[in-house]
Design goal:
oxidoreductase, globular, 32 strands, MoPterin_dinucl-bd_dom, 780 residues, alpha/beta, iron-sulfur, disordered N terminus, 6-stranded mixed β-sheet
C-alpha cells in the first residue's frame, strides 16, 4: 500500500442538510485510474455512521447479501451460490444505498407543514432525498399548498374512490425495480383485477431493448450465464457499462477471470476508472501491489457505434474461418440448433472499412486485434448495459451481439453466454412476476384459473406511452410502487406538466422525491418499509420476501432493523388494502390472507409461474434456487422456430451535423438511478456540482469553446429543440464527436419520440446537441 490514508468518520448527522447544491462550488480534478481501494471503505463507513449511527450501520453491513440476511437495495449483481462469501459482500454504493435506508433522519408531518409545494419545487433531488425517511402517510388536495397527515384507512378509501370513478384504461400502475417478488406479483394481480395491463416499469427505460432482442433470437429475455461462468470465461467483453460505479462487485468477477487466464475487453466512450484497475479493499495483497488490471484492451467506441463494431467483428471472424476452417465457427452447433446462418454469412461477407471506422471512431487495426481475441476464445461472454440499450438501433445492436455468440456456439457451456447486466435489485424479478404491459396469454390464463378473475387481454402502456398519456390528459389515477417516475422518464418538462393535471397520484415511497412535488390534483404519499426494516406486524410473526438477481437466482431477503416509525406499512400490506378498498370484500382474491402470510403469496406463485414449483420449500434453502434457462441448461432455444436465430441488420450509427455532438447521459459515482447520495463523482474528478457536460478537448476547440465555459445545451430532434440551462463544459477524454452529462439533469433534452425501435426505450444515449454561450453570473 502506497502511503497511509487517515480514516475519518463523521459523527451521526441526525439533521438533514439545509444547503442545496450550489453549482458555483464545482471542483474538477484529474480523473482516477483505479476504482475502490481504502477510500471506498472510508466513504462507506462515513455515509453509514453519519446517517444511521454505529449500531445500525454495523448490524446491516454484517447481513447485507449474506445467507439469511437481506438483499442489497442497490444493484442486481449476484452472490456466490455455493462456498463462502466475503465478510463484506457489498460495494461502496451498496453501502450508500443501505445508509439512505437506515438513516435516522425523518420526514414528519412537521416537515410537510413547514415546506410548501412551491418551496419544495425549487429544491434539487439531492436536497429532497437527504431529508430522511417519511414517517406517516400524507395527502394534498386540489387547491392546497402543503401535504398534511391522513390516516391509512382514509388514504385507501380515497384511492378506491378515484379508481372506481374512472375506467381501468385511465389507471396506470408503475413499478420500481426495488419491489420484491411477492409484492410485484400482488401488484400486477391488483392491476389486472381492476381490468388493465397498464403496468409500466423501470425496465421500459433500461433493459427493454435487451428483452426485445433476446426473446426472438434465443427464446428468453434474460442472461444465460452464472457467476461461475464469469470466472471460467476465456474472454469477457464489457460493452457500454461502467461497473466501477453501477455494479462494483462485478470488478471482482472480472479480475478473477483474468487471474484464471481469461481476457477482458472494455468497450465504452469514456475511459472509466473501473474498467482500468480495481483495488480490492478485501485483499491486502491486491492493495499492496496497487490493484489489479481490469481490461486487457479498451476500445473507445463512439456513442452509437457498437452496431458497426459487432458487424465488423462478425465479418472478421468469418474471414478467419475461411483461412483456418473449423477453428472459429462452431458448425455442428449452428447446424443442429440455429437458423439463418447462411443469410448472416452472406450479409457479413463484405465490409466498408472506411464507414466502419467513421461509425465507431476506431481503427481497423484495433477492431482486428479484438477479432483475433474472439477467434482464439473457446468460451466467450459478452456483457452489456445501458450504453447499448438506449439508442434508436439498440435492438439491432444486441442482435449482432447474439450473432457473434451463436456463431461460436457460446451457449450452454462453461464460461460462455450472453450477460445483460441488470441495474436495480429485482428489476428482473419484477418482470418474471408479471410486471409487463404486454403479458403473454399463458400468464393471463394461469392468473384467471388460479384466482377466478378475468384478466384484460388488451396491451397496456409502457413508460414512454405513459408519458404520452399524461401529456394527452388520459391518466386519472397514477400509482407508483417505489421509484421516481417524474425524474426517471424523458421529456421532463412535458411529463411534469401532464402529471400535475392527473386526478390522483399515489406514491409508495421511503423518502421524498421530485415525483411527490409535481403531483396530481390530489396526491398521496404512502410510507413503506425498506429492505433493511423488520416486517413483523403479522399474525404469524416476522415475514420475509424474495428477489431474483441478474443471473436468475431467486433468494430470500429479510430485514432485521427497527423501522424509524410505527406508522410504516409493508408493500404487500399496502397493495392488499388498496385492493380491498377498491374491489370490495366480495372479490374472489383473498387479499387479506396474502398480506398476513407471505407464504400464501408464494403458494399462488408456485401454481402460476413455471420454475417456481414448491416455492415455499425451495426459497428456504440458504442458497435459494436457480430458475430454468434453456440456452444455458440444455443449449436449446424456446423461440417460435425452436432454434436460435441469426439475424441481419443494416449498418446504422449516430452522426451529428457540423457544430453538434452526440450526447449520452450517465450516473455519477455518488448516485443510484435518480437518488443522489452526495456530490462527489470522484472517479471522474468532479465534485460539488452536477450540471456539467464532459467534452473532448479537441471538440471544445473545434466548436469554439473552452474548458469551464457556461452554456445552455440545446437538443434537436424532428425539427424541434429542447433547452437545458446553465451547464458547465468540462474538458474530458471522451470519444471524439461525443459528450456526456448526468442523468436525470439532461433528461429534459430527450424528446419523447427519441426512442429505441421495438423496445420504445428512451434515447438517453442518442441526443444531438449544440451549445449556446451563457453569461457568467455576477458576483455580489
Amino acid at each position: 500500500m502506497q502511503g497511509k490514508q487517515e480514516i475519518m468518520i463523521n459523527p451521526i448527522k441526525r439533521s438533514a442538510p439545509v444547503q442545496d447544491i450550489d453549482e458555483n462550488e464545482l471542483v474538477v480534478h484529474e480523473p482516477k485510474t483505479a476504482a475502490a481501494g481504502i477510500k471506498a471503505v472510508t466513504v462507506s463507513l462515513d455515509r453509514g455512521i453519519s446517517q444511521a449511527g454505529i449500531t445500525r450501520t454495523v448490524r446491516s453491513m454484517l447481513r447485507v447479501n449474506q445467507r439469511g440476511g437481506f438483499d442489497c437495495p442497490g444493484c442486481a449483481w449476484p452472490e456466490p451460490i455455493s462456498g463462502p462469501r466475503k465478510p463484506a459482500e457489498f460495494c461502496e454504493n451498496g453501502a450508500k444505498a443501505i445508509a439512505e435506508e437506515n438513516t435516522l433522519r425523518t420526514v414528519t408531518p412537521e416537515f410537510w407543514a413547514a415546506h410548501s409545494i412551491e418551496e419544495l419545487a425549487g429544491k434539487t433531488e439531492y436536497w429532497l432525498g437527504n431529508q430522511g425517511r417519511i414517517t406517516e402517510p400524507v395527502v394534498i388536495r386540489e387547491g392546497e399548498t402543503h401535504y398534511s397527515p391522513i390516516s391509512w384507512t382514509d388514504a385507501f378509501d380515497l384511492i378506491g374512490e378515484h379508481i372506481r370513478a374512472t375506467t381501468p384504461d385511465r389507471c396506470v400502475f408503475y413499478t420500481s425495480g426495488r419491489t420484491a417478488n411477492e409484492t410485484a406479483f400482488m401488484y400486477q394481480l391488483f392491476a389486472r383485477s381492476i381490468g388493465t395491463n397498464n403496468l409500466p416499469d423501470c425496465s421500459n427505460m433500461c433493459h427493454e431493448s435487451s428483452g426485445s432482442a433476446l426473446n426472438p433470437t434465443i427464446g428468453i429475455g434474460k442472461g444465460t450465464v452464472s457467476l461461475d461462468d464469469m470466472h471460467k470465461a476465456e474472454l469477457i467483453m464489457v460493452v457500454g457499462q461502467n461497473p466501477g460505479t453501477n455494479h462494483p462487485r462485478m470488478l471482482s468477477a472480472l479480475t478473477e477471470c483474468r487471474h484464471n487466464g481469461g481476457k477482458v475487453v472494455a468497450v465504452n466512450p469514456l475511459p472509466e476508472a473501473g474498467l482500468l484497475k480495481f483495488k480490492d479493499p478485501q485483499s491486502p495483497g491486491n492493495l499492496m501491489r496497487g490493484g489489479d488490471q481490469v481490461a486487457d484492451e479498451f476500445l473507445q467506441v463512439k456513442v452509437g457505434g457498437d452496431l458497426a463494431l459487432f458487424q465488423a467483428l462478425g465479418h472478421l471472424l468469418l474471414e478467419e474461418e475461411k483461412r483456418s476452417p473449423g477453428t472459429v465457427v462452431d458448425h455442428d452447433f449452428i447446424a443442429a440448433r440455429t437458423d439463418g446462418f447462411q443469410e448472416y454469412r452472406e450479409a457479413r461477407s463484405h465490409l466498408d472499412w472506411s464507414e466502419t471506422e467513421r461509425a465507431t471512431g476506431l481503427s481497423r487495426l484495433e477492431i482486428t486485434r479484438i477479432a483475433g481475441m474472439l477467434a482464439r476464445s473457446k468460451a466467450t461472454i459478452i456483457c452489456w448495459a445501458l450504453g447499448v440499450t438506449q439508442q434508436p438501433h439498440s435492438v439491432n445492436t444486441l442482435r449482432e451481439i447474439i450473432n457473434i455468440l451463436l456463431m461460436q456456439g457460446n451457449f450452454g457451456k462453461p464460461g460462455a453466454g450472453a450477460c445483460p447486466v441488470r441495474g436495480h435489485s429485482n428489476v428482473q424479478g419484477d418482470r418474471t412476476m408479471g410486471i409487463w404491459e404486454k403479458p403473454k396469454e399463458w400468464l393471463l390464463e394461469a392468473l384467471d384459473k388460479e384466482f377466478g378473475i378475468a384478466s384484460p387481454r388488451d396491451h397496456g402502456v409502457d413508460a414512454t406511452e405513459t408519458l404520452e398519456a399524461f401529456m394527452d390528459d388520459e391518466v386519472d389515477v397514477f400509482v407508483s410502487m417505489g421509484g421516481n417516475f417524474a425524474l426517471a422518464c424523458s421529456d421532463t418538462e412535458a411529463l411534469e406538466a401532464g402529471m400535475k393535471r392527473a386526478g390522483l397520484t399515489v406514491h409508495v415511497s421511503t423518502k421524498p422525491n421530485r415525483s411527490h412535488i409535481v403531483h396530481g390534483r390530489t396526491s398521496l404519499i404512502l410510507p413503506t418499509l425498506g429492505r433493511t426494516d423488520k416486517d413483523d406486524k403479522h399474525p404469524k410473526g416476522a415475514q420475509f420476501l424474495s428477489v431474483e438477481d441478474s443471473m436468475s437466482v431467486v433468494k430470500s431477503t429479510q430485514g432485521r432493523l427497527a423501522p424509524v416509525s410505527e406508522h410504516l406499512l409493508a408493500e404487500p400490506v399496502i397493495i392488499a388494502r388498496m385492493a380491498q378498498a377498491t374491489l370490495g370484500d366480495d372479490h374472489p382474491v383473498d387479499w387479506r390472507a396474502m398480506a398476513e402470510d407471505y407464504d400464501v403469496i408464494r403458494d399462488h406463485i408456485s401454481r402460476v409461474l413455471p420454475g417456481f414449483e414448491n416455492f415455499n420449500q425451495r426459497i428456504r434453502n440458504k442458497n435459494g434456487f436457480v430458475l430454468p434457462n434453456p440456452p444455458r441448461d440444455t443449449r436449446s432455444f424456446a423461440t417460435d422456430i425452436g432454434k436460435g436465430r441469426f439475424t441481419v441488420s443494416p449498418l446504422e450509427y449516430l452522426e451529428a451535423p457540423e457544430g453538434h455532438l452526440i450526447l449520452q447521459t450517465m450516473r455519477s459515482h455518488d448516485q443510484y438511478n435518480t437518488t443522489f447520495y452526495g456530490l462527489d463523482d470522484r472517479y471522474r474528478g468532479i465534485s460539488g456540482g452536477r450540471r456539467v457536460v464532459l467534452v473532448n478537448p479537441e471538440d471544445l476547440k473545434d466548436l469554439g469553446f473552452a474548458d469551464r465555459d457556461l452554456v445552455d445545451v440545446i437538443s434537436t430532434f424532428k425539427g424541434t429543440e429542447r433547452r437545458a440551462e446553465k451547464f458547465r463544459l468540462v474538458a474530458y477524454p471522451t470519444a471524439r464527436g461525443c459528450a456526456a452529462a448526468y442523468f436525470p439533469e439532461a433528461n429534459v433534452l430527450v424528446h419523447r419520440d427519441l426512442v429505441a425501435r421495438e423496445s420504445n426505450t428512451p434515447g438517453y444515449k442518442a441526443m444531438t446537441v449544440r451549445f449556446v454561450p451563457r453569461e457568467e453570473p455576477q458576483l455580489s
